[in-house]
Queue: 2 jobs
Job 1
Amino acid sequence: MHTTKELQAKVRDIFDNQNYINEPKRLYEPIQYSLSQGGKRLRPLLALLGCSIFKGDLETVIPPAIGLEIFHNFTLLHDDIMDEAPIRRGQASVYKKWDTNTAILSGDTMFVLAYEYVTKTKAEFLVEVLRVFNQTAREVCEGQQYDMNYETQDLVGIEDYIEMIRLKTAVLIAAALKIGAIVAHANTDDAQNIYDFGINIGLAFQLRDDLLDAFGKLEVFGKPIGNDIVTNKKTYLYIVAYEKADSMQKAALDRAFSEENNEAKIKAVLELYEQLKIKEETEKMIEDYYEKSLQYLDAISIEKEQKAELYDFAKGLMLREV
Ligand code: IPE
Ligand code: IPE
Ligand code: MG
Ligand code: MG
Ligand code: MG
């Protein structure tokens, strides 16, 4: 068993010592930029944790763990173009620092790099790990498409929203844990339970992301506050606001969302969110998914002490500001 701190240090060490620079520089520099910037590096950490709690050999999980983080960063390069988000991790997004074409092609290259790492998985686990990874990678794209579809779709229900964030965010978190479990020889039930635990903390994680996008602090969160409002994202906050609003408040929401000036739009929407206590509603939902995640963690057939790091981790993730 390793502590989360030890595993975090290991992940940091791995990425601090990677060099992706190659020719042509314009292709590889953005890759180095993105991967050395840090971020939380949650997915490789979860892969290591998933392996560690089942007493697996960490060396076995490192190649797919690196692949998962590169894949995640690939999605961010493209996501920032799609979301017109100029800042990530407190620095210029790749498409802003360079340009859109660069972010597309460096992103594509990262997708390939991710597969190069995943396919370095030990032969005995490779077929199963690839199966999980392939399905997950496709689902992330499906989720991203729903996210884009919903920008211009008025009627998006809570269930549609949850399915969209399950796909765009939760499955990758869940897959990281499951891949860790697979290479540690966990049994099928345990691998499924850790996956479902991951889905639920992943849903809580994206709900928190939506919340911080509206109510976080740029200096801490590292992303521009109000970007989801500007781009008319159908976030949980948006959907619940319309659900809770009376007819006057609905009209006010409509007016706020059709405001042309971005700053005025953000301000007007946030005022209504506050009036409608949307922050509190969202926190309740985060708590619900967190509670649900614990049921799956409870069901994993290993000693409770062996799962302690995951219990703590889930709690910390639910309360994050970053
Ligand atoms: C950002 O993921 C995209 C979402 C799924 C919300 P993270 O919040 O894990 O981003 P980094 O890698 O820590 O910057
Ligand atoms: C995250 O959605 C999903 C993926 C990047 C695949 P967001 O668009 O909310 O992520 P951020 O807020 O830009 O990190
Ligand atoms: Mg997005
Ligand atoms: Mg985005
Ligand atoms: Mg977001």
Job 2
Amino acid sequence: MTAPRPYGLADRLYAGETVFCAWLGTPEPFVAESLAREGFDAIAFDMQHSTIDLMSVMRGITGVFLAGKPSIVRLALNDFGTGARLLDTGAECIIAPMINNAADARRFVEACKYPPIGERSWGGARIMQLSGMDANSYIQASHKMCVTLAMIETVEAMNNVDEILAVDGIDGVFAGPSDISLTLSKGAEMNPLRKDVEEAFAMILAASKKAGKLSGCFSPNYMTAKGLADKGWGLISVITDGSLFKIGAQTALKAARGE
Ligand code: 3PY
Ligand code: MG
């Protein structure tokens, strides 16, 4: 049997396709693999707001790979070195939270892209197993194949979105509606469905298109995902594992109890 070789995420995003991913906070590789087998285009592991650690994400990436799907990782704050380690382990896309200016974006790129774009260091034994590529083919392909998305989720980042997008090696942006709502309201309200968040999203999407770069966003809930796809966002996080459990449990129990 030929091993599955995902490594197609960048091509799909650059071709303008919509990529729907599940967003995971459970540090259990089996959950990641199971969702990958349910038809999501990709699985995103959240290392910023969960207990997912390095070992569970590495095992999760392998499970998702076996299901023939690409893995995405959202890093913890300023943890760019872990981004490189996870690319070494088979992640195809790294999302860095709270990138507020070009200097933040450059530090992200330095860790996650090989020279001449950045300063990522070589350590690709695992990646050669998974990709089936030799070292130098992988290094050359990685400039495009390993996608770096800078999270735009503060007023400062929105003001600097053009300079962030202009950083060589930043492949695109990923909008975070919860933090956008928090900073736009100066801490008064966390509500990703606010009207001003919708306007911020439109501005961020337009900036990414003008720069000729990729776009992604966290959908406030699964009901808003289609509208975001229709607007032209590329990578869309549809639902979290926590919400899936909750909705699944409520639906099953309602049916069982005849409610
Ligand atoms: C946000 O909405 O702020 C996010 O970071 C999504 O997880
Ligand atoms: Mg956020």
